[in-house]
Amino acid sequence: MGIVLGPNRYGKAENRLLRVYRDTPRHEIRDLNVSTSLRGDFADAHVTGDQAKVLPTDTQKNTVFAFAKERRVGQIEEFALTLGRHFVDDIEPVDLARVDIEEFAWERIEVDGRGHDHSFVRTGPEVRTTAVTVESGAAWVVSGLKDLTVLKSTGSEFSGFLTDRYTTLPETWDRVLATSLEVQWRYGRLVVDWAVSYASVRAILLSRFATTRSMALQQSLWEMGRGVLEERPEVAEIRLSAPNRHHIAVDLTAFGLENPNEVFHATDRPYGVIRATAVRDDAPPAGPAWDV
Amino acid sequence: MGIVLGPNRYGKAENRLLRVYRDTPRHEIRDLNVSTSLRGDFADAHVTGDQAKVLPTDTQKNTVFAFAKERRVGQIEEFALTLGRHFVDDIEPVDLARVDIEEFAWERIEVDGRGHDHSFVRTGPEVRTTAVTVESGAAWVVSGLKDLTVLKSTGSEFSGFLTDRYTTLPETWDRVLATSLEVQWRYGRLVVDWAVSYASVRAILLSRFATTRSMALQQSLWEMGRGVLEERPEVAEIRLSAPNRHHIAVDLTAFGLENPNEVFHATDRPYGVIRATAVRDDAPPAGPAWDV
Amino acid sequence: MGIVLGPNRYGKAENRLLRVYRDTPRHEIRDLNVSTSLRGDFADAHVTGDQAKVLPTDTQKNTVFAFAKERRVGQIEEFALTLGRHFVDDIEPVDLARVDIEEFAWERIEVDGRGHDHSFVRTGPEVRTTAVTVESGAAWVVSGLKDLTVLKSTGSEFSGFLTDRYTTLPETWDRVLATSLEVQWRYGRLVVDWAVSYASVRAILLSRFATTRSMALQQSLWEMGRGVLEERPEVAEIRLSAPNRHHIAVDLTAFGLENPNEVFHATDRPYGVIRATAVRDDAPPAGPAWDV
Amino acid sequence: MGIVLGPNRYGKAENRLLRVYRDTPRHEIRDLNVSTSLRGDFADAHVTGDQAKVLPTDTQKNTVFAFAKERRVGQIEEFALTLGRHFVDDIEPVDLARVDIEEFAWERIEVDGRGHDHSFVRTGPEVRTTAVTVESGAAWVVSGLKDLTVLKSTGSEFSGFLTDRYTTLPETWDRVLATSLEVQWRYGRLVVDWAVSYASVRAILLSRFATTRSMALQQSLWEMGRGVLEERPEVAEIRLSAPNRHHIAVDLTAFGLENPNEVFHATDRPYGVIRATAVRDDAPPAGPAWDV
After folding, report:
1. Among A132, C9, C203, D52, which is most exposed with the fewest C-beta within 10 angstroms?
2. pTM for the structure as a whole
């Protein structure tokens, strides 16, 4: 019997980078949260304490900021690919790099009906994301969004479900359906108009959520995922995670009032969690598992 | 020497209310976080444990939901006034009520170029607020917003400041200025088009932030506050609180790179905090202090 | 009619300071979050943009770290007084300084039955606080704690309360009472053994919470506050704020089970909020109001 | 080309359960956050909207609370196994269940030198966790802890590391090392004294952290993980995730002060992230991957 070192990785998380493009008086900004993580020949760092193959996380941070100047940022998928390839190609002990980026959206402040040159206001709350994995000669891009919060005030039911002795939930054919979506979609190729693809996927998700008469959140997620795959050939697989933010119709009968689904209490916990994946049956294989 | 009961109050915080208006197939929704708090003749509840004059916080919660059905919600200022007046007028031991409401904004999901009838997506991140104080025969409305995050990529300087032996900050004539605004404005009267006033104050704050060449965040706040008072006669006083979210230009010289204000590290802590008030010299007096 | 600058202040919030005392191999550490805020002759900074009287918040930060070295830290009340007096006495335009400090508690890691010399583990979750206000020749110390979470599994009732048409809450003579305390106590003098006083107040709060048969959270707060004033002559006034973290006994009758207060659902929102003050009738006056 | 449903699961997250044992006047409490998640024959729920095989998440919630009464809670590993086996054995469409539990620690309030019968105070901040996966006839238990925050004020270095053109970090032979540990350990068997094992693993982690002269956080993690496997035969594998909470020695030379590692600025972001695994070379296989 022996004890061995298993999977390991290290990196620098949450480098908060603002990149300003000021080539003209009409500035552009990109507001990012960049995390890097490396795998490779790092057993000595753990087992003997020898750091000779370890590129400091501080250096990874410097690289993020230097590359933001040297190579510009572009779309977050491009920036993550550039960083990941650098670590794998240029740092000898590194076999695999993962770069995660969150992007926070801003729009120009409107002054006299026109967007201002260098003043901006945050929009949101949703956040655009990408997770790029790079090996020597290969790369995988999984982009996504989180905190996209949606609600239907009707057009949602939940009935005909399985019951057991612990079931007390009544069936309903009209309820509020609300969730805060976290979605990741894996691209089947690396030549993509990332900005167009992101905007289109987001619009499809919202539209399918709106137009699906929902038998359950499961069905809504499937329809949203299927819709993206139908309309966006560059996407190979999509995973959706959705907390079911329960809105409980308040019982007002004690006060002599009816409540035909007009007044709801929005609850925090517990909440349902539904996760589903839609995938092409000819999708290329996913990247290396990220199991630690 | 004796020990006496000083200021006290009690209430129900964070009633998360969703109100759906479904009089037509084109639904409207209002998503609120309502907190109530009462002052009055409650010494016995503390000192002897006698609860005979205490209206349970559970009842306050029920009242919020019942009123949402019975009286509808309207603008948050109206709803808060209605609730506050009820507690003061109808519950004998109550001398003073305060109702705080946060409103979360939603917009219709766009489907085929048109807003959907009953499907919505959260916008933000900013939150609209009101704090209404009611006494018998009197009321004060202080509305506001929070988490309105703004940034200027130029047009901001900080120079000519006081120095001492602990000062190392260099002067700058071009920096990034970023803050997450929390603003409250006190109305001088109770007959107001609340929705119009809110939208207008928000637009003025943004516009003045954008167009002020800023010598310091202090000056930006003053210009924003002054702008609101100049343009909105219904506002008697305005208070602005602004963390200075420092963006530090990264020193890239070690990598042979210049950084003419293009690459910044957005820091979390510490941050500056600037608070300022603009007030009319003939403003009516503020409401009772809320000193506990 | 004119528009004038009202109350204003500025400072540096959340300087995260770790002070290590390593005079001997047995190190001591103090882990603090220090915020400073200044009032004074700062109208020009707002109105004309002239910063000549403004000591930068960056300098305030430097002062915190430099004083931690030069003057050591000692108890947080001492460190706050030292910083506050420096700003008022040494920086000409400053009339009033407020210094807020949070202290995070650590204990030595136990190795072979003995606390280690230089390895520590965080305890908590409660946080010790102080808020010190300094004017020329005067100072006020308000210390406290927050996030002290307590629970009684019996010995708490709520009955005999006022009812109206919106009341549905049943009376109870046995319930779970849980809260996360936030307490501030104002000292009546400045010569105090701060560490002893803090530990003693904390112990009194806990003990009174435990031994009071509670007719309501109001009564528990009063007994806790009164207990501190009875036993700690250095304390002039004490304010307690307590969310009532409702624990709802789950109705298990549908499953053929009784639930004699054994199984509870701990709810998040809404929650009750109770605030109360106990004060000596001969307490010296409080410091300047902190009204912006 | 077709689009198919991939991995999916659903459940009820964050059931906040307080269990009071009141068989004698000396009460015991267990404060838990329980999440359940099910996999199985649920394709119809997604693809056709037919919910006939879906046990509602509301029923899962009811089951958690009912079992807390019927079967008592015991150690969190036992409670999770009981719940997981119920879902797999008794609910026909379920192939696999995962139950995650967080436990929050409380201790008795001390009154007159003795722990009170029914009054408690939260300790922390660390949280005990378990994640149990159950299939028909098999189960895997992965227990852990999170938010265990530790710091060494000396005995940590970082030198001899790899450098490239983006490296500016100086070597150091004496630094502050601080992290907030998140650790999971997989048990190799199901007959374990869970309480003893938890307490022992926690003590080993702390002790090894304290006594390891650290060449890097990597080495500290490895020594901690190895120590657990050496001393606890019931543990087959252990994974440690540790943010490197950087403490930067403040440069005080501008103020004429030396800073021999006495005054530090504790930073928030970015932070290093180190993850490592120690595993027995004869460890039994892990449970099914949890890949969505």
Report:
1. D52
2. 0.98
